[in-house]
Structures are given as structure tokens and as C-alpha cells.
Design a protein that fits this description.
The chain has 726 residues and is α/β, with parallel strands linked by helices. Helix content is 51%, strand content 11%.
Length: 726
């Protein structure tokens, strides 16, 4: 009782609040009683207060182990704002010089410092260990505790050394805190920190104010994002991209479309990073485009949208990043763009890592794919992943619930899935189970002789897509378990065994199909995506005439997406035309005059207003990367070496080279082609493109693929476009 009254009085005195949030009070009471405490609380739930307030009440200095320098600075500044004395909170990390370290130590020895933030790397330094042995420690707080687990989304090996060091310095109560942990990660944290008997406080992971949506990632993604931001003008938002290069490009694209945006990633110098972060916090810019290096400890309550340009590597990462939206319980829109191709790219990046790490990474990716592709309530899927059941039928605040798909009866399919899992002794993953059900003769099926099973091919009339949905929804319904520690093997639960005895109706919704959505956009092409189909068709006719006159395939002049953009944004000057995706200065000058005249006449005849918000400006192709690639090719540097020097995969370099050539710049890559291909082969591919109606890569691979690799076809296509079109 005394602790209760003390906590309320000190909360009011130091922080100005009258009441605690959720189970904050019980957590603090447990810590004041000097017990180990484990806190699982979603972003925005008030985790920091759980150790900040007890540190002010207890004797001695609390040691807070935290992974990020930016996070420490943020928290120390916040604590100093609540106190009259700056010495109340300090941090010890590699950013401090000797003089600053001495000042920190003096304040601690003088008894001024109640909170000391330490990076795990600094904690392992001998001189710091020796110093900490001499002071009175109230307790240890391990923030972002999921970093301990290799199953967490941000594994840091140095976190594994925390317990031995605590034992060396001197044991005191430990409070571990995280915003994202599956039951598996939670167990890992407790085991590693030697706090298996700790009292666990778990808050609900449900954030009712957040709206979840997954959109297909198509070629028009930048345009889609700009449209979304302009519809939410003046609101704060974060856009997460996986690569630094994409962060820079997208921030630039947003800027030229009159959106106040800045980039943020670990490759920038720290002064610029801090400057950009502060500009966002002080609302001088609306949007930050960032890698996941941004956001930990960013206490901005009114972030109104979080967009994922690329699918994250794990659901923990995703949950933590979307957790930055709507922390004031106001609106928070979480939009994610997804395509299967991104998953394949992420799997590629894992190659070269230890096999165990690759397997873990693949499991985490599978869970993310399952979330994106499933048509089940997104809230239900997310909460189930974090070990929490959500029984509401329709959450009313995610795309799947607002636009529900028709449910189909899958009683027979579920029974068949459960029977095969049992027959295979619960030792296989879902893709193998599906191969057996549909009767697919893979190497794995053959080697285990599973084609000899009576059940082999028992569901050959059912699509993989339906069976995938059945398995995913059976896991959520509690009939199956995915054994994460055994790399995703499917296990029957007691409820699953009971179902086999007494099957009942099992209604499922078919998964969303993002691969088709991607294809559809490409196949439908122009008029479907252009705002003005009439102008689009006129431009196609001019392109055809021009191509015939020059004896070239039409796509060499301008590609369909470029015509679509012209029929959407109505460029009427050369400058505007070269801002159209895929045009560039060279093409604009060579072919643009007639197109511009027609567009101008069409705009005047039809009294079309060219609204600024419809004009999507792309960044001129004069980026540093493009210029250095052009210079490298001029100097005849082998393309594989050039890719290496730029930190690109070879196919990423090809993307860049294609963009340069399609925008009208001439590149001569003969020196490289002659090195890797004989002349006849080059001629075959060149002739194919000369006679083809389209430059479509899939069609070319189908026609030529048996004899040539995809890379060879792409390289000769670059030569063809450069020589014939530019």
C-alpha cells in the first residue's frame, strides 16, 4: 500500500500525470519490491515510464541497457526536461570523449544520477565494469530485449553477454522490456537473462485505432504514394524502404512533387541524420523516408500514416514499425505494398549467412507472406502471431474486414491436410504437405517415397492457393501448430486430433493473389491506367506512324507506361516531357516535338485543366549513381566489376542501365558483350528484338530462353535499344 501511495505521489510530482496507463502501476510495484520483471507492451503503451519512475524513487543509479545512441539521447533529454538538474540522467557510449565520460562518472559518484543509459558494447568495456562495481545500482533495465533472441527481428549478439556482465558487476533486480515478442522470443529472452521466474506483465497487442491495409506493389507505386500523401495533406507520416538507395530516390521524388520530405538512413553522416529527425519532430517536414534505422525511441504521438514501400523481413519488425502510427490513440493508417518478388529478393540477400540463420530468416519471411496474402482479418492474424487470441468476427478497421471475400466450405480439405500431417509423422513444412495433397512429384516427395502413400494426390483437383489458405486458417483456428524451432514443421494440436475424429464445417476465405495483381497491371497496359484513354490512343497512333517512318518497333520510341503518363499528366513543354518516367532529355528532344504539339492541341480543344496534383514528376535521370554508371561504361569497366564497386547485385545494375537507355541516353556495352558472348549469339537476340512487336522480357525468354540466359537477353536488349532508339 505504501508503494502504491508513493508511486501516485511521485508520478504527479515528476511527470504531472494523475493516473497510470494499463498495468504500469503493477509493474512498478513489482520492481520496487526488488523482483525480476518481464514487460511485453506494444509501442505507445508507456514502457519507458515503467523504469524511469522507479529509478527516481529507489536508492542508487538504474542501469538502462539500450541498443541505439539516438534512442538514448532522446530518453536522456526527456528525463532532463522533467528535472531541474541535468545530472539526473546520462548516457555512456562511443559518442562521448574522455572529458564527457569523466563528467558522467562524477555526477554518478556525487549521487545526482538516477538513470544511466549504456550501450551493450560499452557495458562490456573493462574500465566501465570496474567503475560500475564501485557504485550503488538500484536495478538493471534491458530495453528492446528482443535483441537477445536470434528469432527476434533485430538480433544483436552482444545482448547475449548482458547476464554474465551483470553477474560480474553485482546482481540486482532486472526488468526486461520489449514491444514485440512472440512466445518463442519471450522464452529466449527470459532464458538468456536468467530470469525464467520473473513475473510477466503482458499488455494486449491490439491497437484498435490502427487501420491495416496491404496493396499490390505495381509499377505505379510512387504515383500511388504521392496520391495518398496529397489526400492526407499536412499529416505526419513515415515511409519505410529496405535499401538506402530507394530511400534517397523516393525522398527526391516526393520533393519534386511538392511534398515536404527528407531521407533518413544509417549511411548518412550523423549530423544530417539528427537534423532530418529533428525537422520531422518539429514539423518542418511532413514525411520521413527511412530505413528501419529510423524510429526507435521517436516519441512523436501524431504520426498519421506509416507506409511500407517494401515488405518487412519479419512480422515483429512490421509490428514495431507500424506501432509508430497513432500513438495518441488518434488515426493511424498502416499501408504496406507487397509482391512475391520482394520475398524472393529478401531470400537472395540471406545467401552467404550460416544455414541456421538462413532457415530462421525464411521462417520469418513465410509468416510475413502469410500475413500479406491471407484474406483473414489482419488484426486477428497479427495478434495470433504474438500469442493473443482475438475473437471478434469483423474488426471493421482493416482492408480484409472492410471488403470481405466470400467464404467457402473447406471441411474435406482441412480433414485431408490433418490426415497428411499425421501420416507424415508431423515432420514436414506446409509446402511439402501441399505437394503430397496435390500429387506433385518433387525431388523431396520422391526421396521420402511419399508418392507411394495412399493419400498422395487425394486433392489434385484443389489449387495450391486454397490449400495454403486452409493451412494458414487452420493454424489461427488452433487445429495446427507451426513448430518454429523445427523450421516450421506442422504439428497437430489436440483440437486437430479431435477434428479428425469428428469433422465439422470449416469455412475459409481464399487468399489474396498479389502475383496476379502485378501481372494484370502489366497486361492491361495503357488505357486502363491512363486518365485520358482518348489521348492515350491518339499518342499510340503517332508512335506507330513515327516507328514505321523510322523502321523501328514502336516500343523503341516510347514505352506504354510513358504514353500512359503523358495521357495522365498532359506535358506541354520539353522540360515537362523529360520528367515523364522513361523519357529523359535525349528522347524528349529526338521524338518529343510532335507528341507535345498533339497533347497541347488536345488540352486546348477539350478545355482540360492540368491540375497540379495529377502531375507526377519523376526525378530527372541525372542522379549521381546514373552519372557514375555512364562514366564507368565510357571507361569500359566490366559490368560485373561496376556492379561490385557500386554495391549492387548484377540484376540491379542492369535495372539502372536499362533505365538510362530507355530514357534516351546512348550506351555502348559492346566491349562487355564481346567478352562474354560470341557474335552469332548476339546477332540472334538482336534480330529477335528487331522483328518483335514488343520488348517484353518474359516473351523473349520464352522464345529464346532455351539457348540464352535472362542476363544475356537483357544485355543485348540494352544494345538494341541504344543503337536503334537513341
Amino acid at each position: 500500500m505504501a508503494n502504491k501511495q508513493l508511486l501516485h505521489a511521485e508520478l504527479k510530482r515528476h511527470f504531472g500525470f494523475d493516473t497510470f496507463k494499463g498495468n504500469q502501476e503493477a509493474i512498478m510495484e513489482n520492481l520496487l519490491d526488488e523482483n525480476d520483471t518481464f514487460v511485453l507492451m506494444p509501442t505507445g503503451g508507456g514502457k519507458s515510464l515503467c523504469y524511469q519512475l522507479p529509478s527516481l524513487i529507489m536508492d542508487g543509479t538504474a542501469i538502462v541497457i539500450s541498443p541505439l545512441i539516438a534512442l538514448m539521447k532522446n530518453q536522456v533529454d526527456a528525463m532532463r526536461n522533467f528535472s531541474e538538474d541535468d545530472g539526473i540522467a546520462h548516457f555512456l557510449n562511443s559518442s562521448l570523449n574522455k572529458q564527457a565520460v569523466d563528467r558522467v562518472k562524477k555526477d554518478i559518484l556525487d549521487g545526482k544520477t538516477k538513470l544511466l543509459y549504456v550501450a551493450p558494447e560499452s557495458l562490456t568495456k573493462e574500465e566501465n565494469i570496474e567503475f560500475l562495481k564501485t557504485i550503488r545500482i538500484s536495478f538493471y533495465a534491458v530495453d528492446e530485449a528482443h535483441c537477445i533472441s536470434e528469432w527476434g527481428h533485430d538480433f544483436r549478439p552482444e545482448y547475449r553477454r548482458i547476464r554474465p556482465i551483470i553477474n560480474e558487476i553485482g546482481t540486482r533486480p532486472v526488468i526486461a522490456l520489449t514491444a514485440t515478442a512472440t512466445p518463442k522470443v519471450q522464452h529466449d529472452i527470459q532464458k538468456n537473462l536468467g530470469m525464467v521466474d520473473a513475473k510477466v506483465f503482458k499488455s494486449s497487442f491490439n491497437r484498435p485505432n490502427l487501420y491495416y491495409e496491404v496493396r499490390p506493389k505495381t509499377k505505379n507505386i510512387d504515383k500511388d504514394i504521392i496520391k495518398f500523401i496529397k489526400a492526407n495533406e499536412g499529416k505526419s507520416g513515415i515511409i519505410y524502404c529496405l535499401s538506402r538507395k530507394k530511400v534517397e530516390e523516393l525522398a527526391e521524388t516526393l520533393k519534386v512533387n511538392n511534398i515536404k520530405a527528407l531521407p533518413y538512413h544509417a549511411g548518412m553522416d550523423s549530423a544530417t541524420r539528427t537534423e532530418n529527425q529533428d525537422a520531422f519532430l518539429l514539423e518542418q517536414v511532413d514525411v520521413i523516408v527511412a530505413t528501419i534505422a529510423f524510429g526507435m525511441g521517436i516519441d512523436k504521438p501524431d504520426v498519421r500514416f506509416v507506409i511500407h514501400y517494401d515488405i518487412p523481413k519479419s512480422l515483429e519488425g512490421y509490428y514495431q514499425e507500424i506501432g509508430r502510427a497513432g500513438r495518441d490513440d488518434g488515426e493511424g493508417q498502416c499501408i504496406t505494398y507487397y509482391t512475391n518478388k520482394d520475398l524472393q529478393k529478401l531470400e537472395k540477400f540471406m545467401q552467404g549467412k550460416p544455414i541456421a540463420e538462413q532457415e530462421i530468416g525464411k521462417q520469418l519471411l513465410l509468416e510475413t507472406a502469410s500475413y500479406a496474402e491471407s484474406s483473414v482479418c489482419r488484426r486477428k492474424t497479427l495478434l495470433h502471431y504474438f500469442g493473443e487470441e482475438y475473437d471478434v468476427e469483423n474488426c471493421g478497421n482493416c482492408d480484409n474486414c472492410l471488403h470481405p471475400k466470400k467464404r467457402i466450405e473447406a471441411k474435406d480439405e482441412l480433414s485431408a491436410v490433418l490426415e497428411v500431417v499425421a501420416a507424415l509423422k508431423e515432420k514436414f513444412k506446409s509446402d511439402h504437405i501441399i505437394d503430397v495433397l496435390v500429387g506433385k512429384m518433387t525431388n523431396e516427395v520422391r526421396s521420402y517415397k511419399h508418392d507411394e502413400l495412399e493419400l498422395f494426390g487425394c486433392k489434385s483437383d484443389v489449387s495450391d492457393k486454397i490449400l495454403n489458405a486452409v493451412i494458414r486458417q487452420a493454424i489461427i483456428a488452433g487445429y495446427l501448430n507451426r513448430d518454429i524451432e523445427n523450421y516450421g514443421q506442422l504439428k497437430l494440436t489436440d483440437a486437430g486430433r479431435e477434428y479428425l475424429e469428428r469433422p465439422v464445417s470449416f469455412m475459409v476465405v481464399e487468399d489474396n493473389d498479389f502475383s496476379e495483381a502485378e501481372e494484370e497491371v502489366m497486361v492491361k497496359g495503357g488505357a486502363a491506367c491512363a486518365v485520358d484513354p482518348e489521348l492515350y490512343n491518339i499518342l499510340k497512333d503517332i508512335r506507330k506512324r513515327t516507328a514505321q517512318k523510322l523502321g523501328l518497333p514502336p516500343y523503341v520510341i516510347f514505352q506504354d507506361p510513358s504514353l500512359e503518363a503523358m495521357a495522365t499528366t498532359y506535358p506541354i513543354t520539353l522540360e515537362e516531357l523529360q520528367n515523364i518516367p522513361g523519357v529523359g532529355a535525349g528522347k524528349a528532344k529526338r521524338y518529343g516535338k510532335e507528341f507535345l504539339e498533339i497533347i497541347k492541341r488536345h488540352v486546348e480543344d477539350n478545355e482540360i485543366e492540368r491540375p497540379e496534383d495529377l502531375r507526377f514528376r519523376s526525378v530527372a535521370n541525372k542522379s549521381k549513381m546514373k552519372i557514375s554508371i555512364i562514366q564507368g561504361i565510357d571507361r569500359k569497366i566490366a559490368l560485373d566489376e561496376l556492379a561490385n564497386s557500386k554495391g549492387l547485385e548484377f540484376d540491379e545494375l542492369l535495372d539502372e542501365v536499362e533505365a538510362i537507355v530507355y530514357s534516351g541516353t546512348k550506351l555502348n556495352i559492346d566491349y562487355f558483350l564481346d567478352e562474354i558472348m560470341d557474335e552469332d549469339h548476339q546477332e540472334d537476340i538482336f534480330e529477335y528484338f528487331r522483328e518483335s512487336e514488343s520488348d517484353d522480357l518474359e516473351a523473349a525468354i520464352q522464345e529464346l530462353g532455351a539457348d540464352y540466359t535472362e542476363e544475356e537477353i537483357r544485355l543485348v536488349r540494352v544494345k538494341f535499344m541504344s543503337e536503334m532508339g537513341n
